[in-house]
Amino acid sequence: MRLSDIGERAAIDRMADIYGMVTLDDCAAIDDGDDLILVTSDIVNEQSHFPPGTSPWQMGWFVVAVNLSDLAGKGARPLGVLLSLGLPASIDASFLDGFADGAHACTDRYGTAVIGGDTKEMPSVALCGMAIGRMSRDAYMPRDAAEPGDLVCVTGMLGRAGAALQYLADGSDEAALHDLLHVEPRIFAGRALADTHVVHASMDISDGLAASLYQLARASRCGFAIDADKVPLASRASLEHGLYHGGDYELLFTVPPDAYDRVSEALRETGCPVSRIGEATSNRLLLRRDGATVPLEHRGYEHFSGRGKTL
Amino acid sequence: MRLSDIGERAAIDRMADIYGMVTLDDCAAIDDGDDLILVTSDIVNEQSHFPPGTSPWQMGWFVVAVNLSDLAGKGARPLGVLLSLGLPASIDASFLDGFADGAHACTDRYGTAVIGGDTKEMPSVALCGMAIGRMSRDAYMPRDAAEPGDLVCVTGMLGRAGAALQYLADGSDEAALHDLLHVEPRIFAGRALADTHVVHASMDISDGLAASLYQLARASRCGFAIDADKVPLASRASLEHGLYHGGDYELLFTVPPDAYDRVSEALRETGCPVSRIGEATSNRLLLRRDGATVPLEHRGYEHFSGRGKTL
């Protein structure tokens, strides 16, 4: 049995069992008095994540952004980022400058900094980011607290990354590369959401909306009914892109219906769009579309490899 | 100019400049009231770090151990470890179990746990670890506080890894593999040292004793005079191994002479041997050997690639 047979998610679950991890969330949480220290790590590589034409600057920004996005999903304030790179000996040294400039620009935009890391020669490019954050314990937004009756909400417009990948398949396109890689993690929106203290469950949707709904349902032991015509779509994006493609890094969260106005107001102050796309139920994941109700498919695209995958 | 022309250390310095890092230490330190939160990351790969015959269990233990060693150098208590793996799709899934078992054994030994991470398919094996720790701010042992007149001390016996690599060059040798990879990070000794509040400067010697002395001298703007016959050598190890080979993960630290007894007593209680090997001076790095005083060479072995290198 090879890794390719079991898949990345099963590999993570298998090791988490051995490590004795109880809950899987966007971040690990460490007690710190009335606060939590949150830590998270994402590793990316050139082949799977970066289309031809990606600049070192874009890689640096992206690695920082996807790690900050995990903090955003919980509502944390970033304290710092570590970047550990495996780089081929043959890579041009100017890569270092471009990569570091992009990473620095992203940390700077979100009020934090690269505070450490490591660099080693490796046969292929491996870019490992880690983000550390802090937040008040009572503001933490977990994955496992969605309740039947909650409204299901998403920030921003979905399908941007999926549509971009489709354009890139037809050849290089600067705008599409930007749409795919210039991720703006929802740090400010996540903190505003956490500060309302009314959000039940939250996560980022890096794996795609449908895949994320399945993860949230599993953690919260609930179901969801989603209205297809309420899923907010980016320009050029289809519903397929919005539901089943990863790479959007928006936030998915649930709130009691009577708290929605408060959440909506808090997000408006950060300039972040929000949409109600359905509600939490007691079981099953359903999609209401064109007057019919059908099962929400459990599939997504694992990062940017372009491989559709049944999850 | 390629990465291989400038080397890993220059690459790290170059990016640290762009990130705006002020001081390079074993760990990054984040303010936490009267405490510091320490974070560190090391990335390793199969080709450079693991001789043929290395088991997945040994890799898991090693990646955790080298990250914990950076916490040990500062005197911190570990709070958790993140492990992000890049693995070829063709790798056998049993690798996951062996690796996770080894990693878990090491965290368990040192009172901590693997609390998160990531796993992605990659063309070659990349194993990225990150350790988080905490300590009282006033117990922190930096790199930049060695003072002329301080005693220079090391824990344990040096050259174990260097001697092991030499044996391995002659063919597989289970005992040598163990000596090389079964790193016991000096967590308990580091905490005991920090608790004395008398240590001036400290770091782990993962890059080799001579290389580490040069790093400590640069950070503290001092020099060192080392007595060759006082460098404690592991069985089968030569002075060359003890001075110029990396991979030993012992602690190098300086204390005022009148505080040595206190430090020695604290280490004895943790079962950790300690040796005085020289003293800090105002400038230059010198080796006293066979009645002569010569410059300490600025060279070491970068991790386990077997490549001697002038630093």
Please explain how this structure is put together.
The structure is a homodimer of 311-residue chains. Chain A is an alpha+beta fold and 311 residues long. The first copy, chain A, folds into two domains: 3-138, PurM-like, N-terminal domain (60s Ribosomal Protein L30, Chain: A); 141-310, PurM-like C-terminal domain (Phosphoribosyl-aminoimidazole Synthetase, Chain A, domain 2, Alpha-Beta Complex), CATH 3.90.650. Chain A contains ten helices and 14 strands. Chain A has a seven-stranded mixed beta sheet, with helices on both faces. A five-stranded mixed beta sheet of chain A has the order 1-2-5-3-4. In chain A, strands 13-14 form a two-stranded antiparallel ribbon. In chain A, strand 3 (77-87), helix 4 (94-109) and strand 4 (114-121) form a beta-alpha-beta unit. In chain A, helix 7 runs antiparallel to helix 10 (260-269). Chains A and B meet through helix 1, strand 1, strand 2, strand 3 and helix 4 of A and helix 1, helix 2, strand 1, strand 2 and strand 3 of B.
Largest interface: A-B, 71 and 71 residues
Total domain count of chain A: 2
Low-confidence stretches of chain A: 303-311
Total count of strands of chain A: 14
> What spatial form of chain A do the alpha-carbon principal axes imply?
globular
Rg of chain A, Å, rounded: 19 Å
User: Secondary-structure element order of chain A, as H and E?
Assistant: HEEHHEHEEEHHHEHEHEHEEEEE
Give the second-level CATH assignment, the architecture of the largest domain in chain A.
Alpha-Beta Complex
User: Remind me, CATH topology of the largest domain in chain A?
Assistant: Phosphoribosyl-aminoimidazole Synthetase, Chain A, domain 2
CATH homologous superfamily title of the largest domain in chain A: PurM-like C-terminal domain
Quaternary class: homodimer
Largest sheet, strands/sense/barrel of chain A: 7 strands, mixed
Q: According to CATH, what is the class of the largest domain in chain A?
A: Alpha Beta
Strand content of chain A: 25-35%
- How are the strands of the largest sheet of chain A arranged? 7-9-6-10-8-11-12
Mean pLDDT of chain A: 93
Structural class of chain A: alpha+beta
How many distinct helices of chain A?
10
Helix content of chain A: 25-40%
